[in-house]
Amino acid sequence: MRFKPSGKSPEEASGSPSWAEQARRPGFTLIELLVVIAIVGILVGLLFPALSSVREAARKTQCINNLRQIGLALSGFHSSFRVFPASGWTTAGPGNPAGKYVSWRPLILPYLEQENLRSLYDVNLNWWEGTNPTAASVPVPAFRCPSSPSVPDVLLAIAKPPRPALTFSTPVARTDYEALQGVQPNSVNPNLPSAIYNPTNRFAVMHRNSRNDFAQILDGSSNTVMVVECSARPSVFRMRRLQDSLNNDQGICWADSEGPFSFDGTTSDGSAEGGAGSMAIMNRRNDNEPYSFHAGGANFLFADGHVSFLSESLDYRTALGLFTRAGGEVLNAGDW
């Protein structure tokens, strides 16, 4: 028996499309592909700033949480010793029985759930002596702002007597938060109609060898700044630009007792600090002034434990009022 040919090609007989049909199948032209790529590029360009904004908002929130933790730790120290820790000790005092150069940060470690690290730090020695630099090489998450940029490891420190120049075998860990000691009268008074500040009313809550409790905060604990952002030290920044040619002798690490500072004010370009015309509040220079890598301002911890984001455009006199605990300034709610 013979079969009659069907007249169909093998591809048709098998149900598969022929080469001709495959060639006729519609697809993307080069122009269409370029248009699609352009549209995707535009969408990514629109989405990227939004994603960056979301990331920075998250980093800013984490920074606020860090300062709140520090505020709770300072409150814990106050509950134990009935005073806030000094910004830095050079004499015997609460938490520093030997009278060594000790920062406020090692003293609050137990209240940050860092008891083991606190046990490694010897308050009977200056912060740069013995095994204290080894303890200082351990990063403490609550002391670092996530918006702070990546900077070189800290392996050296120039001298700041009585501390000699130092070389660290292991990089010491930075801090982005510092105690604000108050204001410098000679720096800020020239920018005021009359001299207001003097050695008796210039201080904030935590200053050198201080023993202040809530009773000494005459301006109100909700109106008095205690800890500020001062990011990326000891690297030196001017207007968000790293200055490789400049050295900083303080703010070496979280254990450094010489990191705290009083407010001087700077020129708008950050080129000089202190004196007439130095009225910028923050984010101009990170050696001895409030400084953050958040857009438009910085986070500040107040003595009552709350944290506020203060704008770079904050009124100068309002800032001075917030930076002192007993200046007698009249501040209105909503001024900051």
Which features would summarize this protein structure in a list?
alpha+beta; two-stranded antiparallel ribbon; 8 helices; single chain; 336 residues; 11 strands; 27% helix; five-stranded mixed beta sheet
What is the compact description of this entry?
With 336 residues, the chain is α+β, with helices and mostly antiparallel strands. The protein has one domain (51-322).
Describe the structure.
The protein has eight helices and eleven strands. It has 336 residues and is an alpha+beta fold. It has one domain. Strands 9-5-6-10-11 form a five-stranded mixed sheet. The model has no long low-confidence stretch (mean pLDDT 91).
Count of separate DSSP helical elements: 8
Widest β-sheet, arrangement of strands: 9-5-6-10-11
Mean pLDDT: 91
What best-fitting shape do the alpha-carbon axes yield?
globular
Q: Could you state the order of secondary-structure elements as H and E?
A: HHHEEHHHEEEHEEEEEEH
